[in-house]
Structures are given as C-alpha cells and as structure tokens.
Amino acid sequence: MKIGFHVGQVVVRGRDLQQQYLDHLEQFRAARDAGFAYFSWGHHWLIHPFQHFQPLPMLARFAAEAGEMELMTMLLLTPLLNPVAVAEEIATLDHICAGRFIFGAGLGYRPEECEAAGITMAERAARFEEGLHLMRRLWTEEQVTHHGRFYRVSGARPTARCFQQPFPRIWIAGMTDAGVKRAGRLGYPFIPSGLQSRDKIRAQLELWRETLAAHGHRAGSDQPLLREFFVAPNRDEAIKRARRAIEAKYGAYAEHGFPGTSERLAEGLDQLLEDTFIVGDPAHCVARLNDYAELGFTHVGLRVLWPAMEQSEVLRMIDLIGSRIIPRLGAQ
Predict the structure, then answer these.
(1) How far apart are CA 147 and CA 277, in angstroms?
(2) Which of 51, 130, 165, 227 is the most buried (most CB within 10 A)?
(3) Residue-level pLDDT at 330
C-alpha cells in the first residue's frame, strides 16, 4: 500500500496567502522526507470560506524537489476547462515530473463553478467524457479532427506529448454509484468519496468490477482511496482534536452541497469516526489502513491538513505517519 498526502480546501479565508504557500511547501518537503509515496492537490474555484491555490502551478513547483515522490491532481475538474488546454498542460507537467505524475479527474459538484465556466450542471458528465476522449486522442494521434457536442478541433496537430506513453495513469472520481459505473464503463480506477463508509466502498468496488467486466475491461494494478485522517500519540487525544476540525470542515462542505455530506453528518460524528474516517493512535490507524489493503486498495491519500490547524501540528502528524505508520504498511 502506498500512502499519499492530500491537500484539499481547508485553509480558512483571512490567512496570509504568502505564508499559506510557504506552509504548503514545507508540508510537501516534510511529506517527501517522511516517505510518503505521492502528493495530491485538489481543484476548486471560488471555494469560500476557504482559500486555495490551483493544482497545476503548485504541482509544477513541487516537481522541482519531488525526488521519487509522485504528484497527482486530486481531482482536476475537467468539465470546467478546455480539454485542449488541459491535454497540453498535463503533457507539460508530465515532463516536468519526468513521468512521476497521475492524472486524477472529476466532474465537480458546485453550481458556482459551472456558472463561472459558462456551462450547466446538467452538462458535466457529457463534457467530462467527451473532453477525456479528446485529450486521449491529442496525446496519441498525429492529427485530430473532432466535431463533438461541446468541443471542435479540425486537423489539429498536438504540440506536446506526454513523457509517459501513451499518457499518464488516469483515475476518476466515484463519489456516487453513477460515478463508479462511469469509471467502470470507461475502464479506469475510481476514487471513492472521503465520506463513503467501508460497507459502501465494499459495495461500490463490486459495482465497479461488474461494470468493468460488462464493458470488456480488466482491472488494472491501481485501486486508489481518499480518507480523512487524524493521528495523535493516543486515540482519545486524536478524537478530541479531530472533532473540532471535522465540524468546521464538513459544516462548510454541507453548505457547498458536497454529495452525501448532510446525510452523513446527520448520522453523527461518532458514526463517521467508526466506519469512515481514520482517527486514532498509530496502531489504530495502521489496523484501519490494513483493512483497506485487504479490500484491494493500493494507494491511500490522507487528508492530514484541517481547518485552523497550526503548521506545527501538521508537521507532527506527518512525522508520526512517517515514523510509526508507513514502515508498518510494507514497501512504498
């Protein structure tokens, strides 16, 4: 099992932005030195009450110091973007990373972002699939003519090829059953929502495998997962400190309309701590991660950074994960 460090939208508005950038850079370096296998970055626009940097320039900056660590978009919301621009920027980033790049992509769920992009919420899935199809052609064909529902190019000659051939690994979001089936139909690994319980994830894995088989695809070697994570020297301390952070983060996510948030919060934080989030002392966290390894997950991205968390606490958690969790999960 490979452990990743994931940065989502968690820094509350009002923080000095330059210091936020420097803190992220320090977190990245600490995660690299602690033995994390990859570092992933989220994508949103206009994500009040949080403030958030955009993934492609941040990952390009990190690539200069990544060493053997892989970098990943988690997730680039491609329906908001022009697929020709995405194809060429991803190819460029793949070269900057010397091939240590994973392309995570998703639909998005916020009307504000669709409005800003000039699209409708109802178009997201169709734009996602058509855009991904066009990107693959631009990465693999000498000349591309595509006259689709949303995108048109005529006799296009791509100007950037990926370092990885034919293109980077692609993982796509599977927050809902429809998303899981989309991933299976297209033949890609799916990334479950951080809010899905273990039982729900187990059912979605079965749905994904059934859909893969029905469309003539075989499962690859990657099976990614995203988990909310909080570790402290003892479990009571971890739970106490995590409660405040979870309430702050997911209260805002519920207002944003993140799928399933209101329903899961209504079940109570104790239920989330029991069957979904990984919160506890190192031994407890290792046991929970091993449970996911037994389900077949090969990559687990951990959300270690929480709202209003001091940088010193983030760095302590990174150190605990590197010293007392990653070594007990086998080779990275």
Answers:
(1) 44
(2) 227
(3) 63
User: Which residue, among 166, 159, 29, has the nearest Cα to 99 in the 3D structure?
Assistant: 166
Nearest by Cα to 301 from 36, 28, 30 = 36
Series of mean pLDDT values for 10-residue runs along the chain (332 residues): 94 94 98 98 94 97 97 97 98 98 97 97 98 98 98 95 97 94 98 91 97 96 95 92 78 71 76 89 96 96 91 96 93 44
Report the distance separating Cα 144 and Cα 158, nearest Å.
8
Give the separation between CA 34 and CA 272, rounded to whole angstroms: 28
How many angstroms separate the CA atoms of 44 and 130, rounded? 21
Torsion sign across C-alpha atoms 174, 202, 199, 275: negative
Position of tokens 């000498």?
Answer: 142
Task: Dump pLDDT digits (tens) for 96-123.
Answer: 999 999 999 999 999 999 999 999 999 9
Q: H or E segment at 49?
A: none
Identity at 194, one-letter amino acid code: G
Confirm whether pTM is higher than 0.85: yes
Domain 2-329 has CATH 3.20.20.70: no
Specify the amino acid at residue 90. Answer: I
Contact 44, 14 (CB under 8 A): no
Backbone dihedral region for residue 283 (phi beyond 0: left; psi -120 to 50: alpha; all else: beta): alpha
Residue type, 119: I
Sorted by where each begins, the domain ranges of the chain are: 2-329
Burial of 145 (0-12, 13-18, 19+ CB in 10 A): exposed
Is the CB of residue 114 less than 8 Å from the CB of residue 120? yes
Assess contact for 104 and 169: CB atoms under 8 A.
Answer: no
Print burial letters for 79-114: b (CB count within 10 Å at least 16), e (below 16): bbbebbebbbbbbbbbebbeebbbbbbbbbbbeebb
**DSSP H/E element including 93:** helix 83-96
Contacts for 294 with CB less than 8 Å, ≥ 6 apart: none
Encoded tokens for 120: 């409708």
Q: How far apart are CA 23 and CA 42, in angstroms?
A: 16
The first and second tokens of residue 155, run together, are 């006799």
Rounded distance between C-alpha atoms, residue 124 and residue 109, angstroms = 9
